[in-house]
Amino acid sequence: MLDRRALLQFAAGTALLAGLPGRVRARASAADGEFPRQVEHVAGSTTLLREPRRVAVISTGQLDAALSLGVIPAGTTRVDNRELAPAYLRSALAARATELDTMVDLGSRQAPDLEALARLAPDLILLNRTVLRGGGFELFSRIAPTVVARGTGGNWRPDFLLLADTLGRRQQAEGQLAALDLQLAGMAQRLGAQPPSASLLFSSGARLRLMGKDSFAGGLLHAMGVIRPAAQRFKGTSQDVSAELLDLADADWLFYAEQGTALASLARQPLWPRLHAVGQARAIRVDTDAFYLNAGPVAARQVVTTVATALGVA
User: Fold this and answer.
1) For the structural domain made of 4-168, what CATH number should be given?
2) What Cα–Cα distance (Å) separates residue 181 from each residue in 77, 93, 300?
């Protein structure tokens, strides 16, 4: 039984769990569909005695990944008070809309509602290490077997495979990644030896962010063979810039998204009309959730399709 003191200690924790190993084992201990199975992950080892039926997904990309494998979670979290199932996922899984509506709201990704999670009584919890605070893994594990992925958009592929291993569906996940890689290789070939440059820009509340090569969308653009502007070749997911440095977002093409109202619309920024991409009508507003707030196979296909269509290589 999870006591209220433990819940409050988790909620009050401020130090992220440190020292977790970055390696994730390539495969679980059993073949697809076989249980029990032991899964090695960044916070340790978890044994699943039977196939999970009530899965709780907490972190970025895990709802997308689970749905890609045909699993409707029993509960999930939301990002920045947005809807539980983003529009791009609802569109891709329109035939299962009624099932999506049954998912229980578990609070925010950054601070999941542990009381709601305990009431859900899941038989598996999936989350990223960015959620964990001191003693967090043990606390989640008292509710249900817990598997911890690395998190951040750049790790979406190994995290997807880890989730698939946990659910006993590795072969299905590998097939989806192979199909995506084939699509990306074809686009890179069609772009040729002199591909265009493309910028990724995300305006969120008071923040204006350039998305780097290690971001989710950045990795996909790289695989497509698209050139990134010099200011966006940094290591890491993103860098904050001021509106006065908006010219760092310029390129042949600009794929941008806006969220929140604290920052004035990008189109009203003084530097906006001076950008080459804007002047050439090559500034494309994209789906915020698919490009910048999620990471998974469904989001990847939407990012690739959006960019490829704009560049004429779809």
Assistant:
1) 3.40.50.1980
2) 29, 22, 11
